[in-house]
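Hi support team,

I submitted a single chain yesterday and got back a structure, but I'm not sure I'm reading the token output correctly. Could someone confirm the output below corresponds to the sequence I sent? I've pasted both exactly as they appear in my results page.

Thanks,
R.
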Amino acid sequence: MEITELTCINCPLGCQLKVSVDNGKVISVTGNTCQRGKKYAETEVISPKRTVTSTVKAGEKRVAVKTVPEIPKEMIFDVMREIHKVNITGPIKIGDVIVHNIASSGSDLVATSES
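Hi R., thanks for writing in. Yes, this is the structure output for that exact sequence:
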């Protein structure tokens, strides 16, 4: 059995979590004060996900973007390689999808600023 120690990042409490994993399955989570901490710990040790935030070229300017939903952590560099290739034109509004299914991640690249 493997024990992983984490600090929960879902709220300001920063609970110190201990996750017991056996054969790729979470056996127990301790140290959490809420269910969000338990869910975070289970996901983080088995299949961590991240929101990627960056900017893309929009002519002479840049537009802020993020992945929605989160992507598997191991795909961050693949997604960033695709982001660096993007150069958009026209007016962009917050929430516009810039790239559907970026890097075959299952997530869209969405604008978080306007051009």
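A quick pointer for reading it: Residues 55 and 63 are 5 Å apart (CA to CA). Let us know if anything else looks off.

Best,
Support desk
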